[in-house]
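User: Can you predict the 3D structure for this chain?
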Amino acid sequence: MIIEKATKGQDYLKSLVKKYPSSQVLKLCATQYYDNLITGCRFGIPHFATDPRGVNWDVSGLYEGPFYCGRRLAEEKIVHEPSVSKLNDEMR
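Assistant: Here is the predicted structure, written as C-alpha coordinates:
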Protein backbone atom coordinates (compact mmCIF):
# COMPACT_ATOMS: atom_id res chain seq x y z
CA MET A 1 0.00 0.00 0.00
CA ILE A 2 2.81 2.41 0.86
CA ILE A 3 4.57 1.81 -2.45
CA GLU A 4 1.36 2.42 -4.37
CA LYS A 5 0.61 5.61 -2.43
CA ALA A 6 4.17 6.89 -2.76
CA THR A 7 4.14 6.18 -6.51
CA LYS A 8 0.86 8.06 -6.95
CA GLY A 9 2.28 10.87 -4.85
CA GLN A 10 5.38 10.99 -7.01
CA ASP A 11 3.23 11.13 -10.14
CA TYR A 12 1.30 14.03 -8.60
CA LEU A 13 4.51 15.88 -7.81
CA LYS A 14 5.73 15.32 -11.35
CA SER A 15 2.49 16.84 -12.65
CA LEU A 16 3.07 19.91 -10.47
CA VAL A 17 6.51 20.43 -12.00
CA LYS A 18 4.67 21.61 -15.13
CA LYS A 19 2.69 24.13 -13.04
CA TYR A 20 5.79 25.36 -11.17
CA PRO A 21 8.67 24.95 -13.65
CA SER A 22 10.91 27.38 -11.75
CA SER A 23 10.89 25.24 -8.61
CA GLN A 24 14.12 23.29 -8.49
CA VAL A 25 13.08 21.80 -5.14
CA LEU A 26 9.84 20.42 -6.56
CA LYS A 27 11.85 18.70 -9.29
CA LEU A 28 14.11 17.22 -6.61
CA CYS A 29 11.08 16.05 -4.60
CA ALA A 30 9.45 14.45 -7.64
CA THR A 31 12.59 12.59 -8.55
CA GLN A 32 15.30 11.96 -5.99
CA TYR A 33 13.35 12.22 -2.71
CA TYR A 34 10.40 10.10 -3.81
CA ASP A 35 12.58 7.71 -5.84
CA ASN A 36 14.54 6.99 -2.66
CA LEU A 37 11.33 6.47 -0.68
CA ILE A 38 9.85 4.04 -3.21
CA THR A 39 13.10 2.14 -3.75
CA GLY A 40 13.66 1.83 -0.02
CA CYS A 41 10.16 0.46 0.51
CA ARG A 42 10.53 -2.00 -2.35
CA PHE A 43 13.75 -3.24 -0.84
CA GLY A 44 12.64 -3.34 2.76
CA ILE A 45 9.10 -4.65 2.75
CA PRO A 46 9.87 -8.12 1.32
CA HIS A 47 12.52 -8.63 4.01
CA PHE A 48 10.33 -7.57 6.91
CA ALA A 49 9.10 -11.07 7.74
CA THR A 50 12.59 -12.55 7.88
CA ASP A 51 14.54 -9.70 9.48
CA PRO A 52 12.27 -7.09 11.08
CA ARG A 53 15.06 -5.44 13.06
CA GLY A 54 17.35 -5.18 10.07
CA VAL A 55 14.62 -3.85 7.85
CA ASN A 56 13.57 -1.35 10.48
CA TRP A 57 17.11 -0.03 10.49
CA ASP A 58 17.23 0.04 6.68
CA VAL A 59 13.96 1.91 6.21
CA SER A 60 14.12 4.17 9.25
CA GLY A 61 15.63 6.97 7.17
CA LEU A 62 13.01 6.87 4.44
CA TYR A 63 10.93 9.57 6.11
CA GLU A 64 13.74 12.01 5.39
CA GLY A 65 12.82 12.42 1.70
CA PRO A 66 9.29 13.70 2.33
CA PHE A 67 10.55 15.68 5.34
CA TYR A 68 13.22 17.49 3.33
CA CYS A 69 10.84 17.93 0.43
CA GLY A 70 8.39 19.82 2.63
CA ARG A 71 11.07 21.78 4.41
CA ARG A 72 12.90 22.87 1.28
CA LEU A 73 9.67 23.77 -0.54
CA ALA A 74 8.75 26.03 2.38
CA GLU A 75 12.16 27.69 2.19
CA GLU A 76 11.98 28.11 -1.59
CA LYS A 77 8.53 29.80 -1.39
CA ILE A 78 7.49 29.03 -4.97
CA VAL A 79 5.03 26.13 -4.63
CA HIS A 80 1.80 26.96 -2.83
CA GLU A 81 -0.10 23.69 -2.78
CA PRO A 82 -1.43 22.47 0.60
CA SER A 83 -1.88 19.04 -0.96
CA VAL A 84 1.92 18.67 -1.21
CA SER A 85 2.30 19.27 2.52
CA LYS A 86 -0.43 16.74 3.22
CA LEU A 87 1.23 14.19 0.93
CA ASN A 88 4.63 14.66 2.57
CA ASP A 89 3.06 14.33 6.04
CA GLU A 90 1.36 11.08 5.04
CA MET A 91 4.54 9.66 3.54
CA ARG A 92 6.54 10.51 6.67
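The helical segments are 2-19, 24-44, 52-59, 64-76, 82-91. The chain has a mean pLDDT of 85.
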